[in-house]
Amino acid sequence: MNSKGKTRYFIASLAMTLALGTVSSAALAMGSGSSWGSDTPDLSEVVEMIDAGKYDTAIASLEGMLEDDPKNADILNYLAYSQRKSGDLESASQNYERALMIDPEHKGALEYQGELFLQTGKPDMALENLARLEKVCGMDCDEYKELSAKIPQ
């Protein structure tokens, strides 16, 4: 690679690093149950849709991804989050359950399912999710703090 190629590569890498630094904490929590590796789908475009509030577009993309990878807890969590934000609470509930059946310690799904419980008048169930999060990641993890802050004291 010549010096121009190295410079372009560096600039592209820097741009990606800066772009990733702007991902919202909500999006980070949604996918934090497992790390993204080379064998997992690239969800960055979906994260951008969700961060922009384009839930219907995200749902369509995620449903397509699920056809190829029906046991991916991250995809199910993103789908449930988008469904919840767009008002489809029943589908969101089902997909949070599916995500947690695949990965019972998925921090994002535990947090956001807890928020769904609060939305649907089930604070005791939200407290159960908070207790599960404490066991999974302690009281200092972002997901625990986010859910805890939303539960009325």
UniProtKB/TrEMBL annotation:
Keyword annotations of the record: Signal, TPR repeat
Ranges of the TPR repeats in the UniProt entry: 73-106
Signal peptide boundaries: 1-29
Gene3D superfamilies on file: Tetratricopeptide repeat domain
Coiled-coil region: none
Pfam families on file: TPR_19
Xref: SUPFAM superfamilies: TPR-like
UniProt protein name: Tetratricopeptide repeat-containing protein
